[in-house]
Design goal:
The complex is a heterodimer of chains A (407) and B (198).
Chain A lengths: L3 E9 L6 H10 L4 E3 L12 E3 L2 E2 L8 E2 L8 H16 L11 E6 L4 E2 L1 H4 L3 H5 L6 E2 L1 H11 L5 E5 L5 H15 L5 E9 L3 H9 L28 E10 L10 E10 L12 H13 L9 E3 L6 H14 L8 E3 L2 H4 L6 H15 L1 E2 L15 E2 L5 E2 L4 E7 L4 E9 L3
Parallel strand pairs in A: 6-9, 6-10, 13-14, 13-18, 14-16
Antiparallel strand pairs in A: 1-11, 1-12, 2-3, 4-5, 7-8, 10-11, 12-19, 15-17, 18-19
Helix pairs in contact in A: 8-9
Chain B lengths: L1 E7 L22 H16 L8 E5 L9 H7 L9 H8 L7 H5 L3 H10 L5 E5 L2 H9 L7 E8 L5 E8 L1 H4 L11 H10 L6
Parallel strand pairs in B: 2-3, 2-4
Antiparallel strand pairs in B: 1-5, 4-5
Helix pairs in contact in B: 1-5, 2-3, 6-8
Classes of the chains: A alpha/beta (407), B alpha/beta (198).
Amino acid sequence: MGRVIITGAGAVSPIGNNFEEVMEGIRTGKRGIGRVRGFDTEFFPCTVGAEVKEKSENGENNVPLRTEPHIDRKEIFIERAMTELFETCDSIRRYAPADRYLNLGVSLDYFDLTGFAGSADAAAGNWQNRSHSTLQTVETLTRAYDIHGGFTVNVTACVSSTQAMGLSYRMLKGFPRGKMIVTGGFDSVINHLHYMGFYKLGAFSDWPGEPGEACRPFDKNRRGLVLGEGAGVFLLRDAGDVLPGEGLAEIVGYGSTMDAYMVTDPHPDGTYLAKAALDAIADAGISPDDVDCVHLHGTGTHKNALAETNAMRRIFPERWKEVPVFGMKGQIGHLIGACGAVEMTGVLYSLLEQQVPPTVNFDDPDPDVPLRVVRGNPLDMDIRYVLKVNSAFGGQNAALVVKRYDQ
Amino acid sequence: MIAVFDSYGAGDEIPLRQYLKNRKLQKYFNRETAAAIVGVGKLARDIELHPETPFYYAAGVMEYEDYGFMELIRRSTGADGQFSQRRFVEEGMPGISPLSQFKVLQNMPSSFAAIEFGLTGDNAVIYTSASGLLLLALHSVSHGPVLLGAGKTYKDGKVDIGFALVKKEEIEDSSFLYGSADAVRMLREWASGASGGT
C-alpha cells in the first residue's frame, strides 16, 4: 500500500484567485460574501452570495466576475485552477498521459435560462440545447491536459469533491508507483435557475445586517447558508515518487456513510457523520485522540450545527468540547459540489502554518453548540492530523484524515 | 452476481406502490428515482441487503425534464418574446414547487433508495461511467458484496434502471473497466446474463 501525498494545488474562490491568495485570505480572515453582481438579481428576494472576484476594467479591485448568460462560470474556475496546478507542478511532466487520472466533484449542470426564453429552442421545447454538460467539460479537460488514465465525475451534491478526493486516495493507495491523480471539485450555482431553486428550499440566510456577516457557522444567531462558487484541485502522488520539498500534506484516511434519514435534514444525532469520521480515523491507523483539530462542514444552518455537535460528541467522547474546530463557509459561502475541495485549502493551511484559523462570523457562542470554535485570533498549536468532514443534501457524509507531511 | 434491469417507456407506470413502504416520500421522486426504488426493491425481495453494503450509483446526464420547467419559461417570457427578469421573479418562480430541486439533484435516486432500504454504508454517485462505477467498487474497503446501480432518463421520457449486487472477484476482470461504456449498458448486460449476470 502506497502513501498518498498532496504535492500541488490550484484554487479559485471568493477570497482568492489562486492557491496562495486563498491561503492568504484564510490567514487574514477575508470575507468573500457580498451582494451578487455576477448576474442580474433585480427583483430577487435574496441577493447575497460569495462570488469569485476580479479586477474590473476600470481598475476596481475585488469586483465579482461578471459573465455572459451563455457562459457556465464553473468552467472558467476549473480551467483556471487546472492551469495553476499544471503551471506550478513540474513533476506532472514526469508522468506519461496514460498514468494520469482525473477525479472531480461538481453538482448541477448549468442552464442558460435567459438565452433559452424566447429562443427557437424554447419554441421547440429543446431545453437540452441550452444545458451545459459538466461531463463534457471534464472530458475536455482530460484532452487539454493529456490525462489519459481515466476520469470520474462525482455528483453526490455537497460531498462530491470530498468523495472525489476520497476515491483518488483509495485508487492511488492501491496503484503501483508511477501514477498521479488530479482531484478536487468545481461549482457555481449562482445563476438565475439554480440560485432561485436553492432559495425555494428555504435554506438561505435571511441575515438582516451586512452581507459579509450572513453566513455564521456555529454562531448562536446563525440564519442559514449562503451560496459560493469556485474550484480547487490537488495533485496526488505516491510518496515513493515525491522529491524532497514537493510534499504539502498526506491523505491517510477516508470514510463515507449515508444517514438514510431524510433528504432535507442531517441526522440530528450525527450518528453516521460520526461513523464516516471514525471510519476515516480507523483507515488512517490512528485513534480519535490523535486528531488535533477538525474542519467541519459548518453551513451556517441551525440543524447542521446541532448535528455536527452531536457527531463531535460521538467521535471524541472525552474531549469533544476541547478539540479545536474551524468552519470556512463564513468566508467563502457554500460551494456545494466544490465545498470539500476548496475547504481542503483550509486543511492545508492548518498543517502548513500549524494554526487553526478563527471561524469568521462566529461571534456569539450557542449553548446548544458548545464546541471549541476558534474565534478572534488563530490558535497556534502542534498539528499533525486534521479531520475534514462534509455532509450532503440527501444524507451522504464524507470524511478525510490529512496528516502533516513528513518525508 | 444478482442483477435486475428495467426499462419504462414515457407512458409506462412504474410499480412504486409494490416497493415503497414510506408513501410520503413519493412526492419528491422523479421517474428515475421511482424506478430506482423499484429496482432496489426487487433485489431486496430475494436477498438481504446489509445496512453497511457499499452503494455506488451512476446517474445519467439528464435528457428529460418536466417539472413545470417549460411553464416557468412561459411565465418568464415578456410580451416582446424575450426573457423578463420581473416576470421570472414575480410569476415564474412562484409557480415552481420547492420539490423540483429534489428532482434535479443527481444524488436523489441513491439518497431515497438509502432511506427506503436503510443503507448507511460507503457510497458515491458519479456520472454515467461503467468503468468509474467498477473502480469505486474495486477500491471499496469493504470485503463483502457491493451494490451497484445505474439509471438514465432519455429525451423521449424513457427510463432505464439497473442494479446488481456483486463481489469484487466477479468484476475485477470485467471488460467494462476499460473504455467509455455507459453504466446503464453494463447493468443491462449483467441482468440479461450477457456479461456474467444472473
